Amino acid sequence: MTRVTWTAEIDRGQCMGSGMCAGLAPDLFRLDGDTAEPVRRDIAEDERALDAADSCPALAIVVRDGPRTVGPRR
User: Fold this and answer.
1) Can you say how many angstroms the Cα of residue 38 is from the centroid of all Cα atoms in its chain?
2) Which of 62-71's residues contact partners 24+ apart within 8 Å by CB, and which partners?
3) How many CA atoms lie less than 13 Å away from 51 in the CB half-sphere?
4) Residue 13 CB: number of other CB atoms within 10 A?
5) pLDDT attached to residue 1
6) Which class for 47: exposed (0-12), middle (13-18), buried (19 or more C-beta within 10 A)?
7) What letters, b where the CB count within 10 A reaches 16 and e where it falls short, cover 16-34?
8) What pLDDT is recorded for position 4?
9) Can you give the C-alpha Rg of the chain in angstroms?
10) Are strands 35-38 and 68-71 parallel, antiparallel or unpaired?
11) Averaged pLDDT of the chain
């Protein structure tokens, strides 16, 4: 059973709609017009979510484990 412990958020005001996140993890992120959005806000721990946050050219993706930010990795 997969535990849902992370949340994925995209700052739509900051997102430039490059599609990097949707290309890396299409089951986690999708394009919605000119910006991206998470497919689901609550997600299982998934390295691809962190890769998407790291790869976002606008740094618009934040992945959290409870109150702790785990992505983007700095």
Assistant:
1) 6
2) 62/8, 62/9, 62/10, 62/11, 63/6, 63/7, 63/8, 63/9, 64/6, 64/7, 64/9, 65/5, 65/6, 66/5, 70/6
3) 12
4) 8
5) 57
6) exposed
7) ebbebbbebbeebbebeee
8) 72
9) 11
10) unpaired
11) 94
Which residues are bridge partners to 4 per DSSP? Answer: 44
What is the residue type of 13?
Answer: G
Q: What is the pTM of this model?
A: 0.91
Q: Is 66 left (phi over 0), alpha (psi -120 to 50) or beta?
A: left
Longest dimension (CA), the chain: 35
pLDDT in tens, 16-31: 999 999 999 999 999 9
